[in-house]
Design goal:
With about 290 residues, the protein is of the alpha/beta class. It has one domain (about 1-290): NAD(P)-binding Rossmann-like Domain (Rossmann fold, 3-Layer(aba) Sandwich), CATH 3.40.50.720. It has nine helices and ten strands. It has helices at about 1-10, 50-60, 80-100, 130-140, 165-175, 190-205, 220-230, 265-270, 275-290, and strands spanning about 60-65, 105-110, 150-155, 155, 180, 185, 190, 210, 220, 240. A four-stranded parallel beta sheet has the order 1-2-3-8, sandwiched between helices. It has a two-stranded parallel ribbon with strand order 4-7. The chain has a two-stranded parallel ribbon with strand order 5-10. α1 (about 1-10) packs across α6 (about 190-205), α2 (about 50-60) runs parallel beside α3 (about 80-100) and α5 (about 165-175) crosses α7 (about 220-230). The two termini are about 20 Å apart. The chain binds NADP nicotinamide-adenine-dinucleotide phosphate. The site of NADP nicotinamide-adenine-dinucleotide phosphate (NAP) has 22 residues, from α3 and β2. NADP nicotinamide-adenine-dinucleotide phosphate (NAP) binds near residues 2, 40, 46 and 161.
């Protein structure tokens, strides 16, 4: 996500982007933002003093915090590290930004919800995370100030990096079948579209909690079917299974539904495109560069 956002802020092309889409209708121009991009090597967010020193040195107007411990299953056995990065690290950034007069935009997750809802989750719904990762991200949210902007997003996938969509696409292209769960519902967020939403937030610095995802929900099986169809594979490509049939069973429990209701976003800015459009763009850009 970070790489797509840095390119977007620099006005450089981002693979899989829709150049006509910008939620606040203002195209990103080269030179609009002076960007300092930091990797894990440059800054460990668990180091409170290093975070404070880095923010003081650059004196930014806005900090977009995308650093996270994202290995959801590994986190179940690595609780202390996960909490240190996602909860304490976020707290260090909120504190340092407050001291330096910078606006913090911190990115969180749909996994703060337990999946027991009968509809998509809105910003006013109470979190109840089921996994260590979900708990750590929720603790991170709570370490933010009301003036910070917290973005909950879900099932993020970009052309770069490696996510579920790449695994499905690879198998579809190689003539292999896939089995995917049809009892976990969520909302896909294509990284290039989220990058445009983050640009809008960088400009407007609204504060508070925002749900951001592509429009319309789906299950992992529905994603697999769509990707299979994109590669011209027939109905036999994807088989629907239940979470209980996964072998080996995942260490971390996942919510059976964690689709995000983005009505608050849509009331203020343009909705992100439907996931089918976003994934179509992503696949088009991926086949152009895939090994
Ligand atoms: N991917 C999703 O489906 C998804 C869904 C909802 C929310 N999110 C959230 O979206 C944000 C971006 O996620 P992503 O998908 O881009 O994750 P990612 O690809 O795993 O990137 C996370 C980055 O954080 C860095 N990092 C880890 N520990 C760090 C530390 N102690 N200090 C500084 N940097 C550290 C990692 O560096 P190393 O790899 O070098 O350790 C990596 O560059 C995260 O907040 C994540 O929780 C993601």
């Amino acid at each position: 996500m970070g790489r797509d956002l840095v390119d977007m802020l620099a006005g450089a092309p981002v693979p899989g982007e829709d150049v006509r889409f910008q939620p606040d209708q203002r195209p990103v121009s080269r030179g609009e933002f002076a960007v300092v991009a930091l990797t894990h090597q440059d800054l460990d967010v668990t180091d409170r003093d290093a975070v404070a020193a880095m923010i003081a040195m650059h004196s930014p107007d806005v900090v977009v915090h995308l650093a996270a411990y994202t290995a959801v299953d590994r986190a179940e056995r690595d609780v202390a590290t996960c909490i240190a990065v996602n909860a304490d690290g976020t707290g260090h950034l909120s504190d340092a930004c407050a001291d330096a007069g910078a606006h913090l935009i911190a990115v969180s997750t749909d996994y703060v919800f337990d999946g027991r809802a009968t509809r998509a989750y809105g910003e006013t719904d109470a979190p109840h995370p089921r996994s260590v990762y979900g708990i750590s991200k929720w603790l991170g949210e709570r370490r933010c100030r009301p003036s910070d902007t917290v973005v909950r997003t879900s099932w993020v996938m970009g052309v770069r990096g490696r996510s579920v969509v790449h695994v499905i696409a690879q198998r579809a292209r190689d003539g292999q079948p896939v089995r995917f769960v049809d009892d976990q519902r969520g909302t896909v967020t294509v990284a290039a579209d989220l990058a445009r939403a983050l640009v809008t937030l960088v400009r407007e610095r609204p504060g508070g909690l925002w749900h951001v995802a592509n429009a319309e929900s789906l299950t992992w099986y529905e994603l697999a079917r769509f990707v299979g169809g994109w590669f011209g594979r027939d109905e036999g490509f994807a088989t629907a299974i239940t979470t209980g049939e996964l072998e080996p069973p995942p260490l971390a429990p996942r919510p059976t539904r964690s689709d995000l209701d983005t009505a608050k976003w849509r009331a203020r800015w343009t909705s992100l495109p439907p996931w089918t459009e976003g994934v179509d763009r992503l696949l088009g850009a991926w086949v152009a560069v895939a090994p």
